Amino acid sequence: MNTVTKYSVSDAATLYKKSRATLYKDIKNGMLSRDHDGLIDFSELLRVYGEPFGGKQQKRIDTSPIQNMNTPEYTDKTVIELKNQIDFLKKQLEKAEDRETKANARIDTLLTLIEMKPPQAVTTFTNQKSEPNIATDPPSKPKHDGLTTPEPKENPRIPVPEHIEPEPKKRGFLSRFFLPNG
Questions:
Q1: Which of 24, 93, 123, 173 is least crowded, fewest Cβ atoms below 10 Å from its Cβ?
Q2: Which residues are bridge partners to 7 per DSSP?
Q3: pTM of this prediction?
């Protein structure tokens, strides 16, 4: 028996005459575990694969826990698991729809508050006028909704002063010292 207690994946594959891909698959599936340093403890290898192959040992029997897919236990477990997953997904969908409804209501409220959208029939503000009823109210002048350009009113004139003093000519750096002030 070897005195080494930890093996790398390559060394363990050589010791047990398995491919590294098989060992990585067993690690990924949780059958075999590695330590924090990435090495596999010999006791783990013994637990999963048994004694390592010697020169004259018998052929090893595969003891991996693969179930036959045609057994009733497998199909019953699969059906139960799938039903549980369906129930879980239905609950998640209901929660998502509820969040979407609340978000849409919040968006509608915010749009109403910033006056981009006309208020609904039920309003919580007391100083707002109700919307005109087309059947009973006489037609009125359409309001500016911000989507079309309003008709131009008076052309406002900007007053321009009659006399504008010209700006003084700018002087360069050297002319400030050598030319008289003017």
A1: 173
A2: 40
A3: 0.30
Closest CA to 108 of 97, 119, 98, 95: 119
* Rounded Cα–Cα distance for residues 84 and 24 (Å): 30
Q: How far is CA 31 from CA 27, 40, 106, 166, 172, in A?
A: 6, 12, 50, 91, 86
User: How do residues 5-51 score in pLDDT, each as one tens digit?
Assistant: 889 999 889 988 999 999 999 999 989 989 888 899 988 888 898 88
Residues 6+ apart with CB under 8 A from 144: 150
Q: Is residue 142 part of a domain?
A: no
Tens-digit pLDDT profile for residues 43-97: 888 889 888 876 444 455 555 555 566 677 778 888 888 999 999 999 999 999 9
The domain boundary residue, chosen from 78, 96, 122:
122
Domain boundaries, position 11:
6-49
Number of compact structural domains in the chain: 2
Radius of gyration over every alpha carbon of the chain, rounded to an integer in angstroms = 42
Residue 63: DSSP 8-state: -
Shared domain for 117 and 74, answered yes or no, is yes
User: Which residues does 74 contact at the CB level (< 8 Å), separation at least 6?
Assistant: 67, 68
The answer to whether position 37 is within a domain reads yes
- Helices (H), ranges, the chain: 9-16, 20-29, 42-49, 72-113, 175-178
Q: With respect to residue 45, please indicate whether it lies within any of the assigned structural domains.
A: yes
By C-alpha distance, which of 48, 35, 49 is closest to 5?
A: 35
